[in-house]
């Protein structure tokens, strides 16, 4: 490999700490900050809604804030994941029940509320695992590993290792070989677009 090719590989955004430990653990946003952000984005979830199990007046800002505090995961991580998995931050109309039940991309977790809590718990678990070694699927700080869509990533922070554990695809935006798969690139894009 030429020096230029190596430098190009190292400089790829997926090999940076695009999500640092400090950003991952930032709990500075209050429920009101979350609600204001959703409102500014024109999100359906800025207002109370009825969840798929019939629970009325669900306030997603309260749910995100609670999941964030309980699991020590920044609400910004949860908001970027909400956008990545379902465009939930920028959607202005109620998603279908099927989409609501996969709002954060967590399988077998019905209801929007359960999705948010399960997502925060998974990120907390993966962060803890990466802090002491490989995650459950083998992602580890400073250790190259191939994504399912064929991109070799070297996580530059524990939260980045957690991102690729949560979603083991780099995505088309980062050269992934599976058409239509957004992968972790969509999280990165949301994080940047929202100026987190």
How far apart are the termini? 35 Å
**Main pleated sheet:** 2 strands, antiparallel
Radius of gyration: 17 Å
Helix content: 40-55%
| Cross-sheet strand order for the largest sheet | 1-2
Question: How much β-strand is present in the residues?
Answer: under 5%
* Stretches with pLDDT under 50, minimum 5 residues: 1-10
How would you describe the shape? globular
List how many beta strands DSSP finds: 2
Given the structure, what is the number of helices? 9
Overall mean pLDDT: 93
Classification by helices and strands: mainly alpha
Order of helices and strands: HHHHHHHEEHH
- Tally of structural domains: 1
Mind explaining what this structure looks like?
- With 196 residues, the chain is mostly helical.
- It has one domain (3-193).
- The chain is 46% helix and 2% strand.
- The protein is built from 9 helices and 2 strands.
- Strands 1-2 form a two-stranded antiparallel sheet.
- A hairpin with a 5-residue loop joins strand 1 and strand 2.
- Helix 3 packs across helix 4 (60-71) and helix 5 (75-86) packs across helix 9.
- It is globular and about 45 Å long.
- The model is unreliable at 1-10 (pLDDT under 50).
């Amino acid at each position: 490999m030429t020096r230029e090719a190596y430098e190009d590989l190292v400089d790829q955004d997926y090999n940076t700490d695009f999500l640092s430990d400090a950003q991952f653990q930032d709990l500075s946003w209050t429920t009101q900050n979350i609600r204001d952000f959703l409102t500014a984005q024109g999100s359906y979830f800025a207002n109370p809604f009825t969840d798929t199990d019939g629970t009325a007046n669900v306030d997603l800002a309260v749910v995100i804030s609670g999941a964030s505090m309980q699991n020590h995961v920044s609400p910004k991580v949860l908001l970027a994941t909400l956008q990545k998995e379902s465009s939930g931050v920028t959607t202005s109309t109620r998603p279908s029940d099927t989409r609501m039940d996969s709002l954060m991309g967590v399988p077998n977790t019905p209801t929007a509320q359960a999705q948010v809590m399960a997502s925060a718990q998974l990120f907390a678990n993966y962060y803890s695992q990466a802090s002491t070694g490989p995650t459950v699927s083998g992602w580890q700080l400073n250790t190259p590993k191939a994504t399912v869509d064929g991109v070799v990533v070297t996580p530059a922070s524990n939260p980045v290792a957690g991102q690729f554990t949560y979603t083991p695809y780099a995505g088309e935006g980062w050269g992934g070989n599976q058409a239509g798969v957004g992968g972790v690139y969509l999280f990165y894009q949301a994080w940047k677009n929202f100026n987190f």
